[in-house]
C-alpha cells in the first residue's frame, strides 16, 4: 500500500494580507521552458513572415520616396517659373507681318497692303524674330482656313484644331491655291510667292477665307504655333471688272465711283448728260452742284450722294493752279482754280484771298469767272503750284508800286501810265505764251464740248470778251 507524501509546512508563516515579496518575484519570472518555447515560436513566425513583409516594406518605402521627390521637383519648377519651362521646351510661333490687301479675286495674286505678304518666326514670349539657328531657315506651308476659325482666346488653338479648319477644294475643282504654297524662311522671315485663289469663298460656312501658315519641318525641343490672317472675302475674277478704284483717277470712268454701278440707272443718267469720267463729275460738282444732283435724281438718297461725292473728292490732283482775269469791268479781278474748276481764291488788285475767306456772293462770282475761263481758255495762265503763283503776284505788285512811285515824281503822267500798262501787259503776255503751249485746252482734258451742253449752256448769251490783251489796272493820279 502506497504511502501518501505529507505536504511540508512552510518554514515561515503566511500572513492574511498575501504572500511575501519574494513569492511575488518568484511568480513573475518565466520558466526556462516557456522562454525557450517563445523563442522557438518567434523564429518560426519570422521564418514565415519575412518573405511577405520585406517586399511590402520595400514597396512602401519606394512609393514614399518617389512622392517626396515629385513634391520637391514641383516646388523647384514653381519657384523657377518660365526659366525652367524654357529649358524643357522652347516656344515659338509663326506670324503674318502684313494685312491682306482687299479686294481679293480669283486668279489675282495675293498681296499685303504695303508689299508682298510676309511670314515671320517669332519667340512666343518676347515677340522677337528668330534670326538664327536651324529653325530660322525652316520650310513653311501656306494653307486656306475657314473664315470663322478662331481659338478660345483668339490666339490659342491646338495643332489638331488648326488641321480640322483647313479648307479643301470642292469636288471636281482645282486645288484652292494656285502657285507655290511653300516658302523657306531666311533669318526668320519669308515672302509668300505668287499664289492666288482658284475658287471664291461663297460656298463655305462663313463665306470667307483665312490664310494659314504652318511649319513643314520639325525641331526637337521646339514647339511652333501656326499663324493665320484676318478673314476676307474672295470673289470671282469677273468681279474685278466692276471694282471701284480707291482713290479714283481723273480719267476713270464715272461708274468707278461708289454707289454708281456700271450700266446702272445712275450711270445711264450721267452718260445721257455726257458725264463720262470722274473729271467730268468733279467739274460739274464744283461748277454747278445743283445741276449734278438733279441729273442723278431722287433715286440717289442723300446718304448715297454724300458717299459718291466723298469718294470723288479723294481723287489725286496735280499741284498746278490756273489764273484768269476778267475784263468785263474797270476794276479787274482774277480767279485762281484747279484743273477741275474748284475755286481756290480771288485776286482783287493782286491781293490773294483764299476761298475759305470768301462770302457766298463772292464764291458765286468766282464760279462764274471759272466758267468764263473755260470759255476763254486761251487767256488762262497756268502755274506749277500756289507758291509760284504767289511769287508772280509779288513781282507784278512790285512793278505796279514802282510805276506808281515814278508817276508821282514825273511831269508827264500819261507817259508813265502807258509805260506801266505796257510792263504789266508784257509780263502777262509772256506768261500766257509760255503756258499755252503746255496747257491742253479744256476741250481735250475736261470734255468742253460735252460740258458746254449741260454746264455752260447758260452763259451763251453772256457778253464776256477781251477786246485787247489783258493788263493790270493802274490808278492814274489826279492832276
Describe the model.
This protein is α+β, with helices and mostly antiparallel strands and 479 residues long. It is 38% helix and 14% strand. The protein contains 13 helices and 17 strands. Helix 6 crosses helix 7. The longest helix is centred in the first third of the chain and has 49 residues, at 32-80. It starts with 20 loop residues before the first helix and ends in a 25-residue tail after the last helix. Residues 409-479 have low confidence and may be disordered.
The CATH homologous superfamily name of the largest domain equals: Velvet domain
Oligomer designation: single chain
CATH architecture of the largest domain: Sandwich
CATH-assigned fold name of the largest domain:
Immunoglobulin-like
Mean pLDDT rating? 76
How many runs of DSSP E, i.e. beta strands? 17
Largest sheet: 5 strands, antiparallel
Radius of gyration: 50 Å
N/C terminus separation: 200 Å
Organism: Nicotiana attenuata (Coyote tobacco)
Family: Belongs to the plant ACBP60 protein family.
Main location: nucleus
InterPro entries: Calmod_bind_C, Calmod_bind_M, Calmodulin_bind_N, CBP60
Which key phrases capture this entry?
transcription; 5-stranded antiparallel β-sheet; alpha+beta; elongated; DNA-binding transcription factor activity; 4-stranded mixed β-sheet; 479 residues; Immunoglobulin-like; 13 helices; 17 strands; 4 domains
